[in-house]
């Protein structure tokens, strides 16, 4: 029976030679992780049983077996972290699976040059993730009291007849919400604009819903920075200042990293 | 005072892990067809994955004391396992 190949990432062949891969269990928890040569690089992979990990089986598992998903996501995460600590690494996303080793080679071959360049870039850089959360109440009150747009609307309403005033007042709430979103976005854009100056590359991602984060506050920003190592320290210091500066307004800035270069391996 | 605190030394929420290992396309179908694009990747529908995570979070909310601490413990244990493994690896 054919074996599927789960691909974790690529490391430079030279590093793999100097520091051979330590024993790690693969995605199925049984077989071991090994490397496959691809030009000057080594692909870090494990074999998977085709029946157990078919496309359909994976879909079913992720749909119905949350424990499994959680366990596998964590497996992927610390396998990658383990590699990241020891090697220059192009990390691959969760569940990057090829139908065979031959197929892996076929796909990788044309990307080889690009990947080697990526490895060179990754070597001196780190990836950091910023998530900004906002406790809306404070900012909302501020907007309700101080926003010129809201103020103008209030003034306009106060000149209406009592009956119409009642209905127009209801619109004020949605106006405040609108202004709140604008203001939050402006603040985040501003922070991002300043932080990104430290980075060689930056990218803005989608926000996760409250259901997903399980937090009380809304996530209002999610971005990734790719930093040259000598710039990390000042980036972190600046971030710390921002954290303090915006805490009063109800913002929580959460920085995590360094992450393996998931977003900037440049293999698009 | 060291300002750096790395991912390995911190309790990382599952959501942060999923956020990076699933990439930016949390609402885009097919984004799991990874950067090194190839016809032969096994295709995993991202929306399925997302709804699974939603279920996970809900389960955690319905039974917060048991599940969340369990979850954190597992994560912590697994993360620290990974750390100690590499530390104890002979050179």
The most extensive interface between chains reads: A-B, 64 and 59 residues
Q: Alpha-carbon distance between the termini of chain A?
A: 32 Å
What is the ordering of alpha helices and beta strands of chain A?
A: EHEEHHEEHHEHHHEHEHE
Question: Which secondary-structure class do the elements of chain A indicate?
Answer: alpha+beta
Overall mean pLDDT score of chain B?
49
- The coarse silhouette of chain B is extended
Query: Which oligomeric form is depicted?
Result: heterodimer
Helical stretch tally of chain B: 3
- Which consecutive residue ranges of chain B, at least 5 long each, have pLDDT under 50? 24-47, 64-73, 75-91
What Rg of chain B is obtained from the alpha carbons, in whole angstroms?
17 Å
The number of helical runs of chain A is 10
Low-confidence stretches of chain A: none
Cα gyration radius of chain A (Å): 25 Å
Main sheet attributes: strand count, strand direction, barrel closure of chain B: none
Overall geometry of chain A comes to: elongated
The helix-strand sequence of chain B is: HHH
């Amino acid at each position: 029976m054919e074996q599927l190949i789960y691909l974790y990432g690529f490391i430079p062949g030279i590093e793999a030679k100097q520091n051979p891969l330590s024993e790690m269990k693969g995605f199925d928890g049984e077989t071991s992780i090994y490397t496959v040569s691809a030009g000057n690089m080594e692909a870090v992979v494990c074999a998977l049983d085709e029946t157990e990990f078919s496309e359909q089986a994976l879909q079913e598992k992720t749909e119905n077996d949350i424990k499994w998903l959680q366990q596998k996501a964590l497996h992927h995460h610390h396998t990658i972290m383990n590699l990241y600590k020891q090697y220059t690494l192009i990390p691959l996303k969760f569940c990057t699976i090829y139908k065979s080793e031959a197929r892996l080679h076929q796909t990788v071959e044309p990307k080889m040059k690009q990947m080697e360049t990526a490895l060179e870039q990754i070597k001196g850089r780190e990836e950091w993730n910023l998530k900004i959360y906002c406790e809306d109440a404070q900012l909302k009150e501020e907007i309700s009291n101080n926003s010129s747009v809201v103020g103008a609307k209030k003034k306009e309403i106060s000149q209406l007849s009592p009956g119409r005033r009642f209905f127009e007042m209801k619109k004020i709430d949605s106006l405040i919400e609108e202004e709140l979103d604008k203001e939050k976005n402006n603040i985040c854009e501003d922070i991002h604009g300043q932080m990104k100056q430290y980075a060689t590359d930056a990218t803005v991602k989608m926000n996760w819903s409250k259901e997903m984060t399980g937090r009380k506050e809304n996530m209002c920003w999610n971005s990734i920075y790719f930093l040259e190592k000598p710039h990390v320290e000042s980036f972190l210091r600046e971030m710390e200042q921002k954290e303090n500066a915006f805490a009063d307004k109800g913002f929580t800035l959460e920085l995590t990293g360094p992450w393996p270069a998931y977003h900037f391996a440049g293999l698009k | 005072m060291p300002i750096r605190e790395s991912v390995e030394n911190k309790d990382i929420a599952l959501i942060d892990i999923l956020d990076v290992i699933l990439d930016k396309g949390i609402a885009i179908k097919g984004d799991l067809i990874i950067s090194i694009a190839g016809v032969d990747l096994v295709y995993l529908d991202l929306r399925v994955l997302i709804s699974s995570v939603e279920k996970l979070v809900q389960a955690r909310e319905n039974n917060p004391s048991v599940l969340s601490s369990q979850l954190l413990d597992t994560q912590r244990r697994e993360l620290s396992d990974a750390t100690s493994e590499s530390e104890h690896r002979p050179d």
